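Task 17 of the worksheet. Students: predict the tertiary structure of the chain below and write it out as structure tokens. Keep your answer in the requested format; marks are given for formatting as well as content.
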Amino acid sequence: MMIKRKIWGFVFVVLALMIILSGCESGSSGELSDVKDVRIFAGSVGPGDFINIEVNVTDGYLDYEVKALTNPSVIVEQDRIGFSKPGSDFYVMDNDDRFLMLGDEVLIATDKAVDEDTGEEIITALKEMDSNEANQISGKYNIITSLEGAPGIVDFQSGGIVEIKIDLDGNGSYSEDEESFTADYSYKDDYKALEMIENNNGLFKHYGVFLDGDIGIFDSYVENDSGSLEGDGMSILVKQNLDSQLSDFAGTYNFIDVDGYNGEISISINNDNTIDLTFLTDDDSGTERVGPVSNFDENTNPGLWSFRTDMSGNGSEELWTMMLFEKVGKEILIVGVTEDGGTINEAEDKYDGLFGWDGDESHGGMIIGVKQ
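Model answer:
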């Protein structure tokens, strides 16, 4: 797309629905019925496919089926995977992938079966959105892209028009030589999602869902030379917040990053506006003091915070951006990292530090965390 310029083979990002169902099994007279916790998701999986997932929390398995994006009636793959919850916030699938759930509204998962050089290894989901909810989406959102870790602005305007600006080199300027365009969008009942059509140096399609109109996930596709759709990464959007404070970010989060790694990250705020990032994964742990942290641009991006640091130790500072979706019982942290030193496509050395992308052609990364 123009949200993300690179084409990736198997970008597996779920768009959407979560409906709690209850099933009753009747026994003899007077016997209590069994109530099962079953949650249903639907969304997209690159390249250009559609997926449905049913998570049976009670019995510990999930069923999924992949549908062709151009023809949802065609099922191209289906399977069942068991999972357990071994005393932690992460559910562990039989194939060793992990996932988190926040109530009945958010799911974040790893997808390590994806080739690390051709696709991301993260799945995200929000509950189903209907046309009435889609009509309520308006105004400005901060955005972080998954492939580049780049920040930006998305402005949903009247008449089904959306304006998007991405700061690819992280200098705080949305110049015309970076990423700036308008596109049409509308609600599509087939996908229970918004569809955004972009014709800007090629055909791009983006499918997105929103939770309470405050946080959104877009999955992107680009048309290749043969006319089929290929995955092009995802983006996370959070409604701009004029009241956002750095202290809001303090806490411990369970996270999954674009490489499919998972663990904990804790954020402590210091009096000089520096922060201590403490991370713990199966392979590594440590604490980094970074900052000072400031609003990325209080005029154009309220609620988006940033700092620069050489986290990878390669002699080149990276731009780190953070945003928070915060409501009662729902706190989701999104962190992006973009390598400095020219535009993303011109940078020679990829960022491969904490939360960075392992693929040979990427220059950024992203994590998504749920507050403990």
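Marker's comment: Residues 247 and 269 are 6 Å apart (CA to CA). Residues 1-32, 340-362 have pLDDT under 50 and may be disordered.
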